[in-house]
Design goal:
- This protein has 262 residues and is α/β, with parallel strands linked by helices.
- The protein folds into 2 domains: 9-189 and 228-254, NAD(P)-binding Rossmann-like Domain (Rossmann fold, 3-Layer(aba) Sandwich), CATH 3.40.50.720; 192-226, no CATH class.
- It is 48% helix and 15% strand.
- The protein is built from 8 helices and 7 strands, in the order E-H-E-H-E-H-E-H-E-H-E-H-H-H-E.
- It has a 7-stranded parallel beta sheet, sandwiched between helices.
- Helix 1 (18-29) links the parallel strand 1 and strand 2.
- It is globular, with a radius of gyration of 18 Å.
- It starts with 8 loop residues before the first strand and ends in an 8-residue tail after the last strand.
- GO terms for molecular function: oxidoreductase activity.
- Keywords: Oxidoreductase.
Length: 262
Amino acid sequence: MDLGLKGKSALVLAASKGLGKAIATKLAEEGANVMLASRNEENLKSAAEEIKEKTNGNVDYVVCDITNPNSIKEMVEKTAKKFGAIDILVNNAGGPPAGVFDDFDDAAWQKAFELNLLSYVRSIREVLPYMRKQGGGKILNIASSSFKQPIDGLILSNTFRTGVLGLAKSLATELAKDKILINTLGPGRIGTDRLNELDKIEATRKGITIDEVRTAKEQTIPLGRYGLPEEFANIAVFLCSGANTYVTGQAFLVDGGMVRAF
């Protein structure tokens, strides 16, 4: 299937590693121009070089602190200047700290809000003029399986990831007239550094090994294993592609069947 991504321009946030990097790689493989964004320039440069070597694609990077509105504005402007258009926005951000309600003060809640919800709002706001001018676009918000089923010990993530879902559902109606499609994609237990970190925290809390945590978690997944970032990226790229012409305002999980909610 031709996904219609050749020559399209994509901006992928939190793209120096993990799910963002996997999505950026798949987009480049399909012929899209790809701008990677994240805070760490060393990691970004390394990721961009790796993706270029693997795909022979048109890949660049821009350093951005997504909790800073001016940094987001500059990121979008640099992307548009580099590629002449922004056809695709992949909103993505690292997860907030693990913990329960009593662990967090107002400052922690505010920081998580700015990282995991307000950054998405700001990025969308900045790309909309470009997408409207060119007659359409695709926006994909990366969230978490917690928008279907809360995850114990991740109250900050549980709260703001569901906010992302509400944002996208509302915008799907508002942006339909502009031919801009927006969807939300939630990972289950996908093998990334973030998941390894959470497994370590759980292992320490329970006094068991990381392997024991992983084995127990895998037993809750019908497919019996953690997912690969590339498997998640396959679904993300379809939703961002020209092959998707009629899916908007929807939320999907890539979780191996783990979440039992409808």
